[in-house]
Amino acid sequence: MSGEEAWSPRLAPRALGDSGPYVSELCIGTSPLGGMPAIYGYDVEAETAIATVEYAIEAPSITFLDTSNNYGSGESERRIGEAIRRVGGLPKGFVVATKADPAPGDREFSGARVLESFAESLDRLGLERVPVFYLHDPEAFDFDDLIAPGGPVDAMRELKRRGSVDVIGVAGGELDAMRRYVDTGAFDILLNHNQYTLLDRSADQLIDHAVGSGLAYVNAAPYASGLLAKPWVDRPRYQYREPSSDVLARTRRLQDVCASFDVPLAAAALQFSTRDPRVTSTVVGVSSPARVEQLVYNAATHIPSELWREIQEIKE
Ligand SMILES: NC(=O)c1ccc[n+]([C@@H]2O[C@H](COP(=O)([O-])OP(=O)(O)OC[C@H]3O[C@@H](n4cnc5c(N)ncnc54)[C@H](OP(=O)(O)O)[C@@H]3O)[C@@H](O)[C@H]2O)c1
Q1: Which CATH architecture has domain 3-241+265-303?
Q2: Does an H or E element contain 294, and which?
């Protein structure tokens, strides 16, 4: 991605793939809402989580929410289901995405498990169907097993063929593994996380490859799980681990250059993703209604092109 044309935040929803639903550039990530203290270093109360989802569903500029069968061992989906009930059902055009996961502790991931995971998710969410369904973190399993006839990838295709979902995607981290799943031609969407941010752009070529292969690209974790948004007193994590001194030093430089333009680092970190025309939607983890408000504010904050030029100077 070269040149620093002044991009304005995109407000028009974009299609997820040729036949996909239209979604907002901002997507609410709900893994923190499932209560995952081991991942984020803190827990989230059920009522706070439910109120956060209600707030997001009613926020006019947000029409997309991301969850998964295994977030908080299903608690994220259950809390989303309760919020949907409390707001009287999903508004027209609001898109919920969830993901197929193996059974807790299971070292197998079969086609039958994908269908079972899907049914569990619909039951928890209280929905008849979901427009977007991903195969979650397949890199933990053998590629040949997952693409074998009757395996998980076939089960994903089957759900689409039946019309139980509109589009299917693959969601994971390991770049080479994601490229192999993109090359199966089975998927409409690629979701990758933590590797297209102000601190790590290692997914850049994979994004070109996926979009060039006709997939929609969804970019998750623009705050690198917290460091690019949270005050340091909160001991934020980087890619779910303690940040190294080198990462802290580069984050400090990013903070300083943003401060010199009176721009929150979180706004620059978010718009680094939303301003990229290859990114259909950006998934941000939140744990309170106030965070949803800040998300909309950060997406609309004006960022001068001089700041983008200076940010470009801070190399990986
Ligand atoms: N394999 C996969 O499919 C995969 C992997 C990773 C992520 N994802 C999806 O992407 C979502 C985003 O990833 P993530 O949540 O891990 O990382 P992230 O979006 O980079 O960062 C989330 C963290 O940033 C903090 N934050 C958010 N807004 C903030 C603000 N305005 N000021 C200060 N701190 C702020 C949140 O803190 P608070 O909790 O205090 O709000 C949370 O700890 C996930 O929730 C999930 O839906 C999918």
Answers
A1: Alpha-Beta Barrel (3.20)
A2: helix 289-300
